[in-house]
Amino acid sequence: MTKQNIVVRTRYKLSLTNPDRLKMFSSRDQSYVDGVIDYFADEEKRALNLIDYFTGKINKHEDINLVMENGKYATKEDLEKRKKYISKQFQNSNLWQVVLSIPQELVDKNIKWEDLDEKVAKKIIPESLKKMGFKDIKNMCYGFSRHMNTSHPHYHIYFMEKKPNTVNQNKTVGYRRKGKIPREVINYLKNETMLTIERESKFKPMAIDINKDIEEFKKYFNPSTKNYVLYDKENIVLEDKILRLGRLLDERDISYNSRIKFNSIKDEEIKNLTKDIKEYLFKKNKNLIYTKSDFNKRLENMNDYLSSVAKRNGIKKEDIDLSYSKNKEKYLDNFILNAIVNYSRYHYKKNKEKITVDTTDVIQAIILNNYKKNKNYSKKDIVTNSLSKNNYPNKTKIRNAVKNINDEMDKASEEFSKLFNYEKERSDNL
Fold first, then answer.
1. How far is CA 86 from its chain centroid?
2. Residues 6 or more apart in contact with residue 83 via CB below 8 angstroms
3. I want to staple 382 with a disulfide (CB 3.0 to 4.6 A). Which of 2, 41, 368, 370 is the partner?
4. Contact (Cβ atoms closer than 8 angstroms) between residue 248 and residue 267
5. pLDDT over 90, % of the chain
6. Where are the beta strands (DSSP E) in 85-221?
7. What φ, ψ does residue 158 adopt, rounded to 5°?
8. What kind and span of H or E run contains 83?
9. Is 45 in contact with 66 (CB distance < 8 Å)?
10. Residues 47, 52, 58, 61: is their CA dihedral positive or negative?
11. From edge to edge, which strands make up the β-sheet containing 95-101?
12. What is the DSSP string of 357-394?
């Protein structure tokens, strides 16, 4: 049984004008660069089953073994042009080379070689170049071939800058001076190649479960569903928190006529109260607690898998990339916080139109203070009993407000459900 790890080897040739190069080797390096394409397209090493994904033609160029930036095979004319271009471009741009060695058994068990070829062309190479810091992928010249003439099939990848494409420390754009490929990029190549190979069998099923949990969470914070937790007129403490938050948003005119994004809020009092409401919900609502527990287990399983992939590839523990799970947590957290601030602002505004601010304060104070003393009473009973004692001013005003308080809240919630325009954000970047 072969080892199930990806091996990456890199080398580079500094451009002829690179100030760090040794001039005495210029002639030798130029000769090396001139022969790179010939080696990549070596007929004895070629992969006979490469597929041209753009035309759907299979094995129409069996004597060619080089894939260009657009995913197409290089013709013999393309090869000659590319050889001349690289030789000329070596005057100013470094030439980078990567050998990506993959156990054949690992691929054969999980994915077609042709599908992996496509991923290398369309995702792995472009993303690697982005991680290296090149400004615009369109300004890069690159290609690759797959050699099947050894026990470990491997990709040969090369890339150069077509024109200055690196942002320097002084913010100017020039040719990249450094030749060494960063460790972060090498780790990405290893991990992403293995994840691509195992995506259908291992990564994708876990990712689907995580996304299902996220969609389940969103139901609790979407006013169009029966599971909506923010509108709960029997939860007096929650109602008080939501109205207080709505009042703060109203008084400080936070994006009054548009949907609020929590992360854009600078006011610490508003941010803290929003987080307090979120924390309160996750302590009091059993369904939310259970759903959160399932979600955490899914993320833990994903992190265990990602860690095992990194370990197989010899990546240090501190270099393991767990950003997938962190991004899922961040996405869900932002969704919930956005829902809380938008509902609170809307709910307060709709109630303010029916009840004056002073009256609202009185009613909320009555409800909250009495609720803390005796939690067996409903909101309506508390206010009605309090009014019968003749201890509060504006009695007629308050009594009229109490008469329709539950009906108005029901109506406000229904209207908010129609107006709360949740964007159809994708959370399933598998």
1. 36
2. 34, 37, 38
3. 370
4. yes
5. 53
6. 95-101, 140-147, 154-161, 166-167, 173-174
7. -130, 155
8. helix 76-89
9. no
10. negative
11. 7-13, 95-101, 154-161, 140-147
12. HHHHHHHHHHHHHHHHH-TTS-HHHHHHHHHTTT-SSS
Three-class SS state of 405 = helix
Question: What is residue 314's three-state secondary structure?
Answer: coil
Structure tokens belonging to residue 139: 């300004």
Query: Which amino acid does the sequence have at 369?
Result: N
- Neighbour count for residue 404 (Cβ, 10 Å): 13
CB 162 within 8 A of CB 89: yes
Tokens 């260009």 belong to 68
Given a contact cutoff of 8 angstroms between Cβ atoms, the answer to whether 125 and 133 are in contact is no
- By residue count, the chain amounts to 430
Which spans in 141-257 are helix H?
Answer: 183-198, 204-219, 236-251
Beta bridge partners of 12: 96
- The Cβ-side half-sphere exposure at 120, using a 13 Å CA radius, reads 33
Could you please report the per-residue DSSP string of 289-345?
HHHHHHHHHHHHHHHHHHHHHHHHTT--GGG---HHHHHHHHHHHHHHHHHHHHHHH
| pLDDT at residue 175 greater than cutoff 50 | yes
The pair of structure tokens assigned to 285 is: 């609502």
d(CA 43, CA 149): 10
Average pLDDT rounded to a whole number, residues 250-266: 80
Confidence of residue 399 (pLDDT cuts 50, 70, 90): low
Per-residue pLDDT band for 235 (boundaries 50, 70, 90) equals: confident
Tracing tokens 């195992």 back to the chain, one arrives at 198
The CA distance from 132 to 117, in Å, is 21
Spatial distance between the Cα atoms of 341 and 338, rounded to a whole number of angstroms: 6
Q: In one letter, which amino acid is 90?
A: F
Cβ(91)–Cβ(15) under 8 Å? yes
Across residues 40-67, what is the average pLDDT? 54
In one-letter notation, the amino acid at residue 292 is K
The amino acid occupying position 6 is I
Whether residue 388 has pLDDT greater than 70: no
Report how far residue 17's alpha carbon sits from residue 91's, in angstroms, rounded to the nearest whole number.
6
From CA 10, how far away is CA 367, in angstroms rounded?
Answer: 70
What pLDDT score does 364 carry?
A: 62
**Burial degree of 39 (CB within 10 A; 0-12, 13-18, 19+):** middle
Higher-confidence residue of 192 and 66: namely 192
Contact by Cβ (8 Å): 401, 270: no
Q: How far apart are CA 223 and CA 221, in angstroms?
A: 6
| pLDDT at residue 352 in the model | 74
